[in-house]
């Protein structure tokens, strides 16, 4: 079942098109990596998927069962976010904010879901720690737990391993893979790490101002685009 379909979509800033002719779809349970060089339009597309940016042309259709407040999102971390003065539990619980509507407080269900994700990510021991005192890898686990509080269908991750060391990076990739395979949550991940992208993802979308490849990972590695981007490996 399609979760979202991107049809002939283009995006522009102040009338200047930065990415055009996007045609791809993501089904329930898929794992898609979006790759491409700096400035190729990856983050712009993510803004489009999150409904934060309207396409200049074309459309992004969400499945009727997928509302925009049901997408879990892990943004690119900024320095300000790294310094956020809240406890780990509070940060995770804030993933339920989009579900609150006009309710001014968290429900019992919100708190239960936050607790479950704390355990799922193996960070119960960090529960009362201040978020800004954590390591980069621990912070990303907290943000992943937070994103999971918002969804049972689709997680969108924008460079989740940026700045992490190789061991912590692989741990996080394995955790994301497990969430995909065991919980059936679809993943859309922007990544600069094309080798890990082809290791874990089922589908690859390669951007270069437009879509230069979309399809199965097994086809991508055999394509001239994939072969070249992987450094001829
Ligand atoms: N707010 C903005 N206003 C004007 N142009 C922008 C804006 N944001 C991005 N752009 C331009 O749009 C193009 C695509 O940028 P985008 O950030 O989507 O690329 P990216 O593939 O995510 O890059 P990176 O890998 O460096 O994060 C670039 O040319 C960029 O300069």
TrEMBL record:
Q: Which organism is it from?
A: Tissierella pigra
Q: Superkingdom, according to UniProt? A: Bacteria
- One Pfam family, short name please? ABC_tran
Question: Quick check: keyword Transmembrane in the entry?
Answer: no
Q: Name one GO molecular function term.
A: ATP binding
The protein's name: Metal ABC transporter ATP-binding protein
Q: What is the lineage of its organism?
A: Bacteria, Bacillati, Bacillota, Tissierellia, Tissierellales
> What UniProt keywords are attached to this protein's entry?
ATP-binding, Nucleotide-binding, Transport
All residue ranges annotated as the ABC transporter domain in the record: 4-233
Q: Which SMART domains match?
A: AAA (SM00382)
The entry's family comment says: Belongs to the ABC transporter superfamily.
């Amino acid at each position: 079942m399609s979760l979202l379909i991107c049809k002939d979509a283009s995006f522009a800033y102040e009338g200047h098109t930065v990415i055009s002719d996007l045609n791809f779809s993501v089904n329930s349970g898929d794992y898609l990596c979006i790759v491409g060089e700096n400035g190729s339009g990856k983050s712009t597309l993510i803004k489009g998927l999150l409904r934060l940016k309207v396409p200049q042309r074309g459309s992004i259709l969400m499945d009727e069962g997928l509302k925009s407040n049901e997408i879990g999102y892990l943004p690119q971390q900024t320095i300000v976010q790294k310094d956020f003065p809240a406890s780990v539990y509070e940060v995770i619980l804030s993933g339920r904010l989009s579900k609150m509507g006009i309710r001014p407080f968290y429900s019992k269900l919100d708190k239960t879901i936050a607790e479950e994700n704390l355990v799922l990510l193996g960070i119960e021991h960090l529960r009362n720690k201040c978020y800004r005192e954590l390591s980069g890898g621990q912070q990303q686990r907290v943000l992943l737990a937070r994103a999971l509080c918002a969804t049972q269908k689709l997680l969108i991750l924008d460079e989740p391993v940026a700045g992490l060391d190789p061991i912590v990076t692989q741990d996080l990739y394995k955790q994301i893979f497990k969430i995909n395979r065991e919980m059936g949550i679809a993943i859309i991940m922007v990544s600069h790490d094309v080798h890990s992208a082809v290791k874990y993802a089922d589908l690859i979308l390669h951007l270069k101002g437009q879509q230069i490849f979309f399809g199965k990972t097994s086809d991508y590695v055999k394509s001239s685009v994939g072969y070249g981007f992987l450094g001829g490996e």
